[in-house]
What does this fold into?
Amino acid sequence: MKHALAALAALAIMFLAPHHPALADTLIDNVNGITIDEKGTVSRFTGLIFDRDGRIVRVLHGSEKRPKKVDYRIDGEGRTMLPGIIDSHIRLMDTALDLLGAASTSAAANRPPPRAEDMDVALQKTQRQLAARGITAVADMGTTIEDWQAFRRAGDAGTLYIRIAAYAEDIAAMALIGGPGPSPWLYGDRLKMNGLALTAERDSALLMDDTRLRNVMSRAAIDSFQVATVAHTPAAVAQLTGAVEELSQTYDGERRWRLERPQALFPDDVARLATLGVLVAGDGALLAQPIVNADALHMAWADKQTKGLPAPFPALAAVPQRQRPHALAAMGANGAYAMHAEGRFGRLVPGEWADFILVDRDPLTITGPELAATQIIETWISGKKIHEQGLETRQQYGKAMPGW
It folds into this structure.
């Protein structure tokens, strides 16, 4: 078993491992480029230049003159380029270990905890599968100390590719991992301990009374940890909203309180949440302040799962076409904002990381069934290709292809 796990770990690393020395400026030209800001405003472009560190230095539009001197030129072959997708609510290691067939970190108390080597293999396998779905960053809800250690081992080894914003499973884990407050972004903006993940209800029953909920949220807020609370039913949403209203009188400034996975939101809820600056997230999608209207929230719980992993384009296909720009913003710029990463990634603009995907169709111009069938051709993070459709081993990559 041990040898089999070691072999799987080596294979997983081959899928993702950077395969060439660092580059200077790279131009990807001839693309149908789309980037969307936090308000859902669409900007189109035809070329992108990023530097050796993987940061965007220039966006080219139309027939704008191309620079004569770049180290690499890549023909995008007219494919659509989008910002890398941000999954704003996932239990990363639980999903990873389920895929591996190992006991998850949130397993019943009478089951042994997962071994570190199982967690490491599972993380590599899941990063590969996320990249194949166009996902370049996630918000991990319920991070344990064991999860965090697995993320750090990957970061130290140079095999952490997907960006992870972590939300601790409880106050104890939050304090142990973060200490006096949220961590900085680590490993080139790939890992950050952001805050606390709470569950306000289970099976439609509230798990804490109002006082207890406020006390737990206050304990996190006093050290500037961000609080993300799962609240499905109207009763739980009302409880959370009341807590935020009260705590906002004590903790000023921009707290970015998060409401996770509501099953329904009424117009009054939307108005109160927008006034308080609460961010609303579902599986794989998030709307940041300002909340536009109730229709815009439809996409917050429209996500579909495939074998335990998010399926972003089938989720996007379920959103009314008029709301697709807002949904794409939720999976990009607003998802980044919600994890305190605005200005780092989430858009394709100068100064941000070159995290992008190349797909085979334009999501803003096609019907729902066509959109659901979207193929991810390539996934890039920090200007490095970590996934290409149809390639299964590192040795199959062409030597001229830029990468780490």
